[in-house]
Write a structure and sequence with these properties.
Length: 581
């Protein structure tokens, strides 16, 4: 259960602190929160209801906020803060010489314009707003601001440290005896952030992240599970009950369905924070996947997950948005520039795109099977598929540590058991006719495919997927800028050259194409969407590009082949032979 507090109305004159980050502007970055000043109005009021949430164990509830302002203006907005109490004692001084403390040093979590629900607000000064809140481990408060918009987002949940409760998962096959598995507990602190806003106004305590490993699963069975916290008085706090179907055995010859996309971000269902302008396709993609969840077995979100850009509260908002998906099927991720990049932090690109997070929230909040979580590359199997997930925010060039991993990952697959070999990275290391790539002349991330294309050809990668560019594009099967044939809808026989797919249009603002369509580009779409792969068996694969707004297929092709076609010798993809008998 979570209480919230309602602040006495105050107005605050906020100066805009604009911060442009490649890939879009995080709405909360519009606020220079440290410059807030206070001007209380005795006759102003603000209230919210209900005042106590989670009485029935709900994770999400709607709140109605009513307010009155005797001096209304079109610039008024209501912000939500969590934790609820403003404590300037923890704030760094705004003026170091004068040791002047700001009134607020934590960005709000959600906001709406005061006149959103009432066009007459500027005349009457009376209105109400509805906010949807998620459990974010703390109380929250509402405040009415005037004289300059600051992006805000509200959120709450509850959490327990290991000295308060023991976390665990109770699980088992549907209808069978349930067992309990312990969970580990992690968190991260403000001093783990590499810079502002993550280390200053964007900081919010993330709570405690618990991970439990459910081992020795039987393939293809439905399992039930629920999380629990064993309190030291002997009682247990339970979460919801979920279910999932365990993965097929590697090489199992059965129907398997994979969804892949990048750059989805998050949005607010209550319309707050102007997220319709920042990641306008995010909810459409999320909702489309939820509607089709019975026909999805595993999801890959290949970088630029939340676009939190240093506003840590947004990670809870994002995980709440994808919970219906991630609680039911495996939700695998890759690292993007908005998760990792920060100057002088070890990222390959010396840009501020992560807002000071430098990978810490993504590495802590999600599990992925990397040997070193700070090096976001890994391999994973799902039935007939073998995936090699690269980290484009660390050096991938020939001779690097990651290049060695990529070759080892591609070389290790048994193509008889797992015929479908997939490569993925966030940035476009293959081919894209995005306008800024075309201006550079290479149609790729600089240095992208220089050394990697030898590996794709040698090990006969079927499809390579990328995000970063916010649109959809599919290439012909290509190697060294040469298409192998003119076929567009069906490929069969010998595996020769890799199809490159940009699928970064899952939610964030769209990226323009070059006016010139390259010869290798088979299909381009300036819209929001995702890709679905369906392996019917070891010899037949269906590729579909679907738009998020209607879930219909707008581009597709099929691949059919036998094991001998994978073994066949092709240019730069032949095993050594000898004349000896």
């Amino acid at each position: 259960m979570v209480w919230f507090w309602v602040l006495v109305l105050f107005t605050a004159n906020l100066k805009f602190g604009l911060a442009h980050i490649h890939g879009g502007e995080q709405p909360l970055a519009k606020i220079n929160i440290l410059q807030t000043t206070v001007a209380l109005h005795e006759s102003a009021s603000i209230s919210a209801e209900p005042v106590l949430l989670g009485l029935k164990g709900e994770d999400t509830e709607w709140i109605t906020v009513n307010f009155v302002n005797p001096k209304p203006s079109l610039d008024d907005w209501v912000g939500v803060f969590s934790p609820a109490k403003f404590d300037p004692s923890a704030c760094p001084p705004v003026n170091e010489r004068k040791k002047q403390l700001p009134y607020i040093c934590s960005a709000p979590i959600k906001y709406k314009y005061a006149n959103e629900s009432s066009s007459s607000y500027a005349k009457t000064g009376t209105a109400s707003l509805r906010f949807q809140l998620i459990n974010q481990r703390a109380d929250f408060s509402f405040a009415l601001f005037s004289g300059g918009l600051s992006d805000m987002t509200v959120t709450w949940t509850s959490g327990y440290d290991i000295d308060e409760a023991v976390p665990f998962v109770e699980w088992g096959r549907k209808g069978d005896l349930q067992v309990r598995s312990p969970a580990g507990t992690l968190t991260f602190k403000q001093n783990s952030m590499c810079g502002s806003p993550a280390s200053t106004v964007g900081w919010r305590d993330p709570g405690f992240i618990h991970t439990s490993f459910l081992k020795d699963l039987w393939p293809n069975f439905v399992y039930m599970y629920r999380i629990g916290h064993l309190l030291y008085n002997g009682s247990v706090v339970w979460g919801k009950t979920y279910s999932f179907k365990s993965s097929p055995y590697p090489g199992q010859n059965s129907l398997q369905r994979v969804v892949i996309f990048g750059d989805m971000g998050k949005a607010e269902r209550d319309g707050s924070n102007e997220y319709s302008d920042y990641q306008p396709g995010s909810l459409n993609t999320t909702d489309q996947l939820i509607r089709d969840l019975d026909n999805i077995d595993i999801v890959f979100h290949i970088g630029d997950l939340t676009y939190s850009n240093g506003y840590i509260s947004q990670w809870d908002q994002f995980t709440a948005q994808v919970e219906p998906i991630a609680s039911t099927v495996p939700y695998m991720i890759a690292s993007g520039n908005h998760e990792r990049d920060w100057p002088n932090s070890g990222s390959f690109y010396d840009t501020p795109d992560s807002g000071g997070e430098c990978g810490v929230p993504a590495e802590t909040m999600f599990y992925y099977p990397a040997e070193n979580k700070a090096k976001f590359w890994y391999s994973t199997d799902y039935g007939l598929f073998h995936f090699c997930i690269a980290d484009s925010e660390h050096d991938w060039r020939e001779g690097s540590e990651q290049y060695g991993f990529i070759e080892q990952c591609l070389a290790s697959v048994d193509r008889h058991r797992q015929p479908w070999l997939i490569f993925s990275a966030h940035r476009v290391l293959g081919y894209s006719s995005n306008d800024w790539y075309s201006q550079e002349g290479a149609y790729e991330e600089p240095m992208g495919r220089d050394g990697l294309q030898k590996l794709w050809q040698k090990y006969k990668v079927d499809i390579a997927f990328y995000g970063h560019v916010h649109n959809y594009e599919r290439s012909c099967p290509i190697y060294q800028n040469q298409c192998v044939n003119k076929e567009k809808n069906h490929y069969s026989g010998t595996v020769n050259r890799t199809i490159h797919v940009v699928v970064g249009g899952a939610g964030s603002h769209l990226s323009k194409f070059s006016q010139l369509i390259p010869y290798w580009s088979i299909y381009r779409d300036y819209d929001f969407g995702f890709v679905k792969l369906t392996a019917f068996n070891q010899s037949s694969l269906l590729f579909e590009y679907k738009k998020s707004r209607d879930g219909k297929v707008y581009d597709s092709f099929t691949i059919s082949r036998d094991y001998k076609d994978v073994l066949a010798c092709v240019h730069d993809g032949c095993e050594p032979t000898t004349l000896a008998s």
